[in-house]
Amino acid sequence: MKLTLLGVYGPFPAPGSGCSSYLVEDGETKILLDCGSGAVSKYRTVYPGPLALDAIVLSHMHADHAGEIDLIRYILEFGLGRKPLPVFSPEIERLSYPVFDPILVSDGSEAKVGSLSLRFIEVRHAVRTVGVRITDRNGRSLFYTGDTGLFDGLIDAAKDADLLLADACLVDESNPKFLKNHMTLNQVEKLRKDANCKRAILTHRFGDAPGLLPLSDPLCEHAVEGAVYEI
Ligand SMILES: [Zn+2]
Ligand SMILES: [Zn+2]
């Protein structure tokens, strides 16, 4: 399984960058994981032809994760890709178009897309949000947290994952209001350790952060747009 970081910022992008969107591939199977600002342009930089996606997963409907789903609709309405395209989401009201096959997911939902198996978990955020564990046919796994505050259920959901892709929007715990909805760098480092993930990428970088702070866990790294990981 291969993961490409298309956009890694939230809740708004840094100059010249994009918000949450990740491409997950396994052989011929392709899933777009979140579809924030810049997703379509960055995806088309990798695959310039017709949309070759098998499904889209939206963790939630905030604009930094789902803002470009309407651009995907336009592409499909021009006949440039598979339709109806399955879109997994915890809210499907905005997906009522013939080019989409909206699939409502909640805690414990499971699905298969090509060679990949998906298992969803409801997480703690300001609106209904899911994290997802994606496992390939060799048993290699990626767990994406979506946007969430830290809670015990994340440890089980991420247990032994080969790669943890985690919301680390906050630098520290100084703002209790945001802490309910996002994790800090330290919390993600602890989650990686408690869940025994082989490595972690700290994403959803704050769009106005002055720079990257050093991390104490050598198995954790900051997300960088364009980076590709073989899982
Ligand atoms: Zn976000
Ligand atoms: Zn959000």
Overview of this structure, please?
- By secondary structure, this protein is an alpha/beta fold.
- The chain has a single domain (2-230), classed as 4-Layer Sandwich (Metallo-beta-lactamase, Chain A).
- The protein has helices spanning 39-46, 63-66, 69-77, 153-158, 176-179, 185-194; strands at 2-7, 9-10, 21-26, 29-33, 55-57, 85-89, 100-104, 110-113, 116-122, 130-135, 141-144, 163-167, 200-203, 205-206, 220-222, 228-230.
- Strands 7-6-5-4-3-1-16 form a 7-stranded mixed beta sheet.
- A hairpin with a 2-residue loop joins strand 8 and strand 9.
- The longest helix is centred in the C-terminal third of the chain and has 10 residues, at 185-194.
- The protein is globular.
- The protein starts with a strand and ends with a strand.
- 49% of the residues are buried.
- One zinc ion binds at residues 60, 62, 125, 147.
Number of helices: 6
Q: How many structural domains?
A: 1
Q: Give the ligands present.
A: zinc ion
Lateral strand order in the biggest sheet: 7-6-5-4-3-1-16
Name the helicity range: 10-25%
Strand content: 25-35%
State the CATH class: Alpha Beta
- Could you say which structural class the secondary elements and strand pairing correspond to? alpha/beta
Oligomer: single chain
Instruction: Output the radius of gyration.
Output: 16 Å
- Mean residue pLDDT: 96
SSE sequence, one letter per element: EEEEHEHHEEEEEEHEHHEEEE
Briefly note the CATH topology name.
Metallo-beta-lactamase, Chain A
Uncertain runs: none
CATH superfamily descriptor: Ribonuclease Z/Hydroxyacylglutathione hydrolase-like
Care to count the β-strands? 16
Principal-axis shape: globular
Q: From the coordinates shown, what is the CATH architecture?
A: 4-Layer Sandwich
